[in-house]
Every structure is written in C-alpha cells, then in structure tokens.
UniProtKB/TrEMBL annotation:
Leader sequence residues: none
Biological process terms in GO annotation: translation
Key words of the record: Ribonucleoprotein, Ribosomal protein
Ribosomal protein listed as a keyword: yes
Residue intervals passing through the bilayer: none
Full protein name: Large ribosomal subunit protein bL28
Family statement drawn from the similarity comment of this UniProt entry: Belongs to the bacterial ribosomal protein bL28 family.
GO CC, alphabetical: cytosolic large ribosomal subunit
Residue numbers spanned by region Disordered: 1-20
InterPro entries: Ribosomal_bL28, Ribosomal_bL28/bL31-like_sf, Ribosomal_bL28_bact-type, Ribosomal_bL28_sf
Pfam family, one: Ribosomal_L28
GO MF annotations, alphabetized: structural constituent of ribosome
Amino acid sequence: MSRRCELTAKGPQVGHKVSHSNIKTKRRFLPNLANITFISEALGRNVRLRVSTNALKSVDHNGGLDAYLLKAKADVLSPRARDLKRAIEKKVGKLAPVKKAS
C-alpha cells in the first residue's frame, strides 16, 4: 500500500537525520495517514479512504466529503477519489460557480 493521501496527494518527503556530532544521514518523513470512513450524503453510502489528518481537517472545514470532492482538482485526487467525484457530480449535478460580491 502506498504511503500517499488519496485526497491531497501528500507523500513521503526526504531529509536528514542530524546527530549530535552533526553527521547527516538520509531519512524519510512519512505523512500521518489514517483509514477513515466518510459518509457521502449524495451517494447515500459510506466511503473508506486512506487520508492524511490534514486532509481530514480540510474535509471537515469544507462541509463534508461531497463538498470537498466537488471543490478539489481532479489531478490531485487518487483514481478511487476521482471515481467518487464523478459519481457525486453525476448524482448532484455540476454546481454553478458562486460569484463573490465586490
């Protein structure tokens, strides 16, 4: 299983472990991933995704999985999340862009 978030595409980063004597050795910084079950109101079912805790916070901030996927760019999403986005768009219909008051 790859260590990549299915919603934000966060993956491992590379850096140095620095010892007390300042010797630098390569190490990997892994994303904080968790298996989360989201509830999709549009599809009427539960969806299990492997996401970072940062993505979990973003989903909550945007008002749920459906709203987050509708706003997200498709090139960042995993293939499973892209399929979910298409299914939600088909079910709900493409939302019209909201105009901001100036």
